[in-house]
Every structure is written in structure tokens, then in C-alpha cells.
Design a protein that fits this description.
alpha+beta; five-stranded parallel sheet; 27% strand
């Protein structure tokens, strides 16, 4: 077991988006310094870090500088090249490992890994070349969805397909890049598990979240989820098996489908804190970002218990009209917590912030959250 990294040390964050920003806030609150590496001069995390190394993720001189400065390094999103982590591993502690990250960067590799654990996924077909599409006739029932295998997120690089002709058209529009064709399954709801796994292998799990997506982007998260105790345990067990199978150290999320017949079906792995875990900032004793700091530093996990039922609502750039959103509608409510990410420009589909509504029960929180979201939108 490695010695603990204590406050006063410097931690590294690969990626300067909102997840990196919230990690940075958690780490600085605990007394750590943070170095962020991100190529964007205005990156949300870089703006508040103790040092921002503004460089590409494959810039070896910049990576060596980060390794020299940092006792340990982590990442905020899975599209950091695995080779970047492998380079850093030669010089400092890196969590999660390059091996774990490499198994989650490609949808085909990820789904094959999940299936190798005996965990159910939706039927899928890897599309490595155009000739592979014909096999969908026998292996996939339509409707289906074609997804680019790498660098897709928040609904980007995804096309619904009702026929084989749709698949060919979508594949061509993606530039004939590697894809996966997934069969759509009848869904009851979507849930996610956010957990933390330590260097000793112990796993701590946050309460299971229920999620609603709009246009491929998470819109709301409700906790506790409206699923049975057996479904909660099934999801947690599967997520834990995935974390163990990856040899994962850090905070990780697994998204699941709940089919109309009640089956828990694994969808995607996020090797990092997750949008659906933002409720933990206000509704749990420990946030997913403090937990990320704790796992990176070899510290014991914090208490994950839920303090209050909660609904989280994403705030996208769509909310901006010709004027700023009506923040006063949120800030007038004593049980509502607003989190903005410091992004310089609001664009449609861009995650600009979120708010959490804490209430005695999820029904009350959801009603208030929906009302406030409607009132928030600019003219």
C-alpha cells in the first residue's frame, strides 16, 4: 500500500472542463494545490487552478512538467489519450491507470469487456468497416442506433436507424469511422451508479440515481431512484464487478438501462465523476469530487449516505435567450443550490451549470425543479 498523500501536496488534473473544475475546488478546500493541463486558455478548471499548463495532451515537455510538480495525477474525461497516462505513469502516480482508461475509450472494446464479465448489454454489432454492416440483418433488430466508437459524448456521433439503409447512410455521414450498432430495447427508465474504488480494492457506492435524457444529453437526475431494492442491488453489484474487472482506482460511474421487464442492462462506463453524480455536491455527506481526491491520495473513503432527497437539473446554453437566465428565480429558494461552471460562452447543448433541489421527497423536489427550470429561461 502506498503512503497517503496529505494536504499541502500538489495534485494534477488532465482536462480543464467542469468536472476538473469541481475536482479542483474539492482538492483546494481540503488543502491541496492543483495543476491543470488543458489546451484551452479559458478552461473552467484552469481558471481556478494553482497552475494551468496550457498545452496539448500529447506534449511530452508539458507532461514532464506536470509529473515533476504533482504527487499524483487524475483525469476528468475518458478521451485523454491512454498514451498520455502511460507516459505520466513512468514519473508519478496516476489514477485511474492507462490500462483502465484504454478499456473505456472505445465503445466496442468497452462493450466486449462488459460482456466478458457476464453482464448483459443491449445487443450490439461492431462496425469496423462498411462491409460489416450487412451482418446486422441477422444480429440486430431494428430500431437501432449507430454510435461512433470513439470521442462521442452527450449524444454526439449518434444516429437512430430504422433500417439497414439508415445504417449505411449514417455510417457514411460519420466518415466511415469505426462505429457500434446497438439494438434499441424497450425501456422503463435509466439509472446510474457512481462509486469509488480504493487502492486496496474497497468500494464505496453513492445512492443509485434515476436519469432523464433529452436529445442525448442528461436533463435531470432524481435520488432516490424509483426502482426496487432488488434492482438497486443488481445495479450496484454489476457496477462493482466492472470496477474490479478494470482494476480501477478512483471515482467511476456506470449507466444502466432498466428494461420494461425489469432487467438491469449495462449501457456505458464513465471512468471519472459523472454528470448524474452532481447531486452529491449538496445531498450527500461527501461529494463525488471529494471522493475522487480521497481515492487519488490513498485516503479512506468519505461517507456516501444521502442527506436529503434531491433532483438535479442541468443548465445548458439553450437556456440563454437574448438576456441572462433569470437566476433570481433560483436564488430566491432556500432549498435550491446553484452551480455555474465559469464557461465564457453559452452555446446550444453546452453544459453551463446545474442546480440541485433538496426536499422532503422526490415528488416535491421534482415539481419544484421543473417549475424553476421553466422560470429560469431567458427571453
Amino acid at each position: 500500500m502506498n503512503s497517503q498523500i496529505l494536504p499541502g501536496a500538489t495534485l494534477g488534473m488532465l482536462g480543464g472542463g467542469q468536472l476538473g473544475r469541481m475536482f479542483t475546488t474539492a482538492a483546494q478546500t481540503m488543502g491541496y494545490k492543483v495543476v491543470v493541463l488543458d489546451p484551452d486558455k479559458q478552461s473552467p478548471a484552469g481558471l481556478i487552478a494553482d497552475k494551468h499548463i496550457c498545452a496539448a495532451y500529447d506534449d511530452e515537455a508539458a507532461l514532464k512538467e506536470m509529473a515533476d510538480l504533482c504527487a499524483a495525477v487524475t483525469t476528468e474525461f475518458e478521451n485523454i489519450p491512454a498514451q498520455t497516462l502511460a507516459f505520466l505513469e513512468q514519473h508519478t502516480s496516476v489514477r485511474p491507470s492507462s490500462k483502465a482508461l484504454s478499456q473505456t475509450q472505445n465503445r466496442n472494446v468497452e462493450k466486449q469487456f462488459i460482456a466478458s464479465l457476464g453482464i448483459t448489454t443491449a445487443p450490439f454489432l461492431p462496425i469496423l468497416r462498411r462491409e460489416d454492416i450487412a451482418a446486422a440483418r441477422d444480429k440486430i433488430q431494428f430500431p437501432a442506433i449507430l454510435k461512433i466508437a470513439t470521442f462521442g459524448y452527450d449524444g454526439k456521433g449518434q444516429f437512430p436507424c430504422d433500417s439497414l439503409d439508415d445504417v449505411y447512410e449514417a455510417y457514411d455521414s460519420l466518415g466511415e469511422k469505426e462505429c457500434v450498432l446497438e439494438q434499441r430495447i424497450p425501456l422503463d427508465r435509466e439509472i446510474s451508479v457512481v462509486l469509488a474504488r480504493s487502492e486496496t480494492g474497497s468500494i464505496t457506492t453513492f445512492p443509485v440515481a434515476e436519469n432523464i435524457h433529452v436529445n442525448g444529453i442528461l436533463h435531470s437526475t432524481m435520488v432516490p431512484a424509483s426502482v426496487s431494492a432488488e434492482q438497486v442491488q443488481s445495479a450496484i453489484q454489476k457496477a462493482n464487478e466492472i470496477a474490479r474487472g478494470l482494476g480501477y482506482i478512483g471515482t467511476l460511474a456506470v449507466e444502466f438501462f432498466v428494461s420494461t421487464d425489469g432487467e438491469i442492462i449495462a449501457n456505458e462506463i464513465a471512468p471519472r465523476p459523472h454528470n448524474s453524480g452532481h447531486y452529491t455536491l449538496d445531498a450527500c455527506h461527501t461529494s463525488q469530487f471529494e471522493q475522487q481526491v480521497r481515492m487519488l491520495c490513498g485516503l479512506p473513503a468519505g461517507d456516501c449516505d444521502l442527506v436529503s432527497p434531491v433532483v438535479m437539473i442541468n443548465i445548458l446554453g439553450d437556456v440563454w435567450g437574448s438576456s441572462e437566465p433569470h437566476w433570481e428565480s433560483l436564488l430566491a429558494e432556500s432549498n435550491v443550490k446553484l452551480h455555474l461552471y465559469g464557461k465564457q460562452e453559452a452555446r446550444k447543448g453546452r453544459k453551463m451549470g446545474h442546480f440541485n433541489v433538496l426536499a422532503a421527497d422526490t415528488e416535491t423536489a421534482l415539481e419544484q425543479a421543473n417549475r424553476l427550470f421553466d422560470a429560469l429561461q431567458g427571453e
